[in-house]
Amino acid sequence: MVEILIFFIAASLLLYVVLGGADYGAGIVELTTPKRLQEKQRHVINEAMGPVWEANHMWLIIVVVILFMGFPTVFSLVMVHLHIPIVALLVGIVARGTAFTFRHYDAVYDSKSQNTYSWIFSLSSVWTTFWLGVVAGSLWQGDIDPTATGFFEAYVNPWMGWVPIAMGFFMISIFSFLASIYLIGESENSDLKAHYRRWGFIFNTAVVITGGAVFVAAYLEQSPFLILFLKNPFSIACVVMATLFFFVLWNLLRFKRSLWIRLAAAAQAALILFGWYFAIAPAAVLTPQGAISFVAAAAPEPTLRQLSYALGVGSLLIFPSLFYLLKVFKLSGKSLQNDSAKNDGIK
Is the overall model pTM greater than 0.70, yes or no? Predict the structure, then answer.
C-alpha cells in the first residue's frame, strides 16, 4: 500500500509542477512584457488560467492529505520545522489568488485597479514560487533535526541555507519557462507569440544555470543529496536527458510547433522531478540522523488501505471531470474568438 501512495504523491507533484507551475509562471512572465502588450497579455492569461487555476491547486492538496493520513510522522516533521517558509508560501497563494480573482472578475473595469491587481498577482507569483522551492530544497538539504530544541536550530536552520535558496530560484526559472512555452499556443497575437518565444529561450537557459547552482550549493553545504544523486544512475540519466531536451526545445521554438514545444517542455520538467525523486527514494526527508523513509513513517495498514481505495475511486472522478472542464472551456474560448473575428470582418 505504501507504494500506491508514493505513486499518487509523485503523480500529484508532477501534475502540480507542469500545470500549476505554469500558472505561477504566467504571473512572473507578466513582469517581462512591454507596456504596449500588457493589456493583450492580461487578456490571454485571464482566459488561459480562468477555468483551471483553482483546480490546479487540487494536486497540492492531494499531496498534503496523503502525508497527513498516510505518513503522519513526515507531515508533522515538515509542518513543524518548516512552518516559517510554509506560512510565507500560503500568504503568497492567498494574495495571488485574490489578486487574480479581482482582476479577472471585476465588474467595473478601471485601469488603475487592474494595474494594482496585476502587480500583486505578478509579485506574489514570484514570492510563492520562491518559497515553494525553498520548502522543496529543505526536504533534502539534511538540516531538519527532530531533536533540535533552540528556535534557530529547529525552525530557521532547516531552510536557511544555500540549497533551499538556490532551489527557490531554480523553481522560478522552471515555472517561468513552462508558462512562456504554454502561452505561445494560447495567444493569437504575433507580437505576443514572439515575446513568449524569446523569453522561452531566456528562461530555458535560466533553468540550466540555476539548476547548476543547486548542485554547486549542495556541494558547498555538503548536502547528503549530492552523494545520493551521484550514486544513482537513474537520477544522472534523467538530468542528462533533461539537458538534451534543452537543445530539442531550441529547435522546436525555431520551427514554431506549439504542441510539440509544450510536450517537450513538460517532459523536461518531468525529467528534472524524476531525477530528484530517484535520488532520495525511498526517503521522504533527509535529517542529520539519517533519512526518514516512507515505509518507516507509514500509518497503520488499515489506514493505508482505506486511503488507497479512496484515491483510486477519486481518480475515476477527478480525471474525467478535469478533462471535461478543459475541453468545455477551451472549445468555448475558441468559438468566442472565431465569432469575434467574424464580427470584426463584417464591420
Answer: yes
